[in-house]
Amino acid sequence: MSSRIKSPQQLLAESGADLEGHGLRRTMGLFQLVCFGVGAIVGTGIFVGLSGSVAEAGPAVVLSFVLAAITCVFTAFSFAELGGAIPVSGSSYSFAYASLGEQAAFLVGWCLLLEYGVSVSAVAVGWSQYVDELLESLTGLRLPAALTAGPAEGGVVNLPAVVVIALAAGLLVRGVRESARATAAMAVLKIGILLVFCAVGFSAFRAGHLSPFAGHGVAGITAGASVAFFSYIGFDAITTAGEEVRDPRRNVPLAILICIGIVTLLYGAVALSAIGALGADAVAGQPAALSLVVDRVTGSSTGGGIIAFGAVVAIASVVLAVMYGQTRILLSMSRDGLVPRVFERVSPRSATPVANTWIVAAVFAVPAAFAPLDVVVDLTTIGTLAVMAVVNLAVIVLRRRHPGLKRSFRVPLFPLSPLLGIGFCLYLMVGTGWTTWVQFAVFLAAGALLYAVYGRRHSRLAVTAPGDGAARAPRGA
Asked: Is residue 467 scored above 50 in pLDDT?
């Protein structure tokens, strides 16, 4: 799309990725990075979305989660290789810049803005619902309807959704160390709650509830996997921490693979215990399936309150992790001149992009507070899949152009693995329907216009000599 391509070496030099990244500090270790990844992945997908997968696959939903994980691993391998070879904050955006060029990179960043923005806003709305349920279980009271929904749902403003975004932003601007500690605590807590759920579910396990195991056949397992696949999305946020992780060439690839393994085992155990306790028919179609299982097994509503608390923690950690990822991608784009310089200003006191974070919070809070988000869910899905396809393609391109690039992890079964990743992404994109493709084409056209009007003219590559890797000095916040 563009002849302007940054070499991996230039990206590394400009970011200071092998030293201290552009005013950012290396404070995250492997454990914190794994917790950050788990925090970005485990949320509404398992607390709310389990029932949808069960409805498609029945007891064989466990195989659906495994199939989704295997499919997801193809792209995870690509992220792991690129995250270890180019450990910078830009993630998919930077990988595209080094392989396909500037315009493709800008459009990837454009798609990520949609993906992360809708994700945070939608998750914040879900957090609002669970806070209301938790409040009712503890006190018997509920928040006023006018303050828990936007105008389209009969309310005035979704105030809790705005609150959780503001709290996440406040924590992020304090520093990466503080954010990482909070994310780690929340990740450990929600894993603990899910493990307690598994113990409760398995205590009432009945083998007969698994029969017939695959009543919907292979088609049901595949359909369940398509629903379950999006429960794994979020591991890509790990690569946005490339400049704030100690030993990123080792820790970034390792954290991605560990997260996928942990989440797969956790999802499988939760699904098996839930179905074993009540049966697939009782779980399918239940938006609060985990609370339902605990309430019925224990004969008390207290367990449901505990699950609601776990959901509140889980969803809050997703908001925190995804917002972090978005701010770092914008920082990288600003460093390259493709978005205004305010997004790259790093506070010398907290070593965080303060203005960037509050701008992102304000933008994300508006749709969370007022707008119905279901109308853009399919658009977000196709944009996310397009980004993943680009990352798989970037692995292939960089292997050819830069065979000597230092890679701490290599995609196995190359080039079959990234090709399978591309194929699966395209397959799911086709399934979104032609109206979504039209919306996506319009969205990409708007991004291309923005790049032509602003990005191309202000690009750092437009004002520096070819091969000049000198970085602009960051401004203080």
From this structure: no
Distance CA(7)–CA(13), nearest Å, equals 10
13 and 471 Cβ atoms separated by less than 8 Å: yes
The 10 Å Cβ neighbour count of residue 124 is 29
Angle at alpha carbon of residue 327, lines to 11 and 76, rounded to 5°: 65
In this predicted structure, the answer to whether residue 113 has a pLDDT above a threshold of 80 is yes
CA distances for 445 relative to 110, 382, 452, angstroms: 11, 15, 10
pTM for this structure?
0.81
d(CA 127, CA 232): 19
10 Å Cβ neighbour count for 285?
Answer: 11
Burial per residue of 35-73, b for 16 or more beta-carbon CB atoms within 10 angstroms, e otherwise:
bbbbbbbbbbbbbbbbbbbbbbbbbbbbbbbbbbbebbb
| Alpha-carbon gap, residue 7 to 405, rounded angstroms | 10
Report whether pLDDT(51) > 80: no
- Quote the CA–CA distance of 427 and 212 in Å, as a whole number: 29
Residue 388 has pLDDT above 50, yes or no: yes
pLDDT on residue 471 = 40
- The predicted structure's pLDDT at residue 244: 78
Tokens of 218: 């292979």
CA–CA dist 467, 374 (Å, integer): 45
User: Rounded distance, CA 56 to CA 36, Å?
Assistant: 30
Burial class (CB in 10 A: 0-12, 13-18, 19+), 297: buried
As a three-state string, the secondary structure of 231-277 is CCCCHHHHHHHCCCECCHHHHHHHHHHHHHHHHHHHHHHHHHHHHHH
pLDDT band at 62; cut points 50, 70, 90: confident
pLDDT band at residue 394 using 50, 70 and 90 as cut-offs: very high
Local confidence band at 5 (pLDDT 50, 70, 90 cut-offs): confident
Helix 30-41 to helix 248-278 angle, to the nearest 10 degrees?
Answer: 40
Can you tell me which residue has the tokens 């070496």?
A: 9
Q: Which two tokens stand for residue 64?
A: 């659906």
What token pair was written down for 221? 């397992």
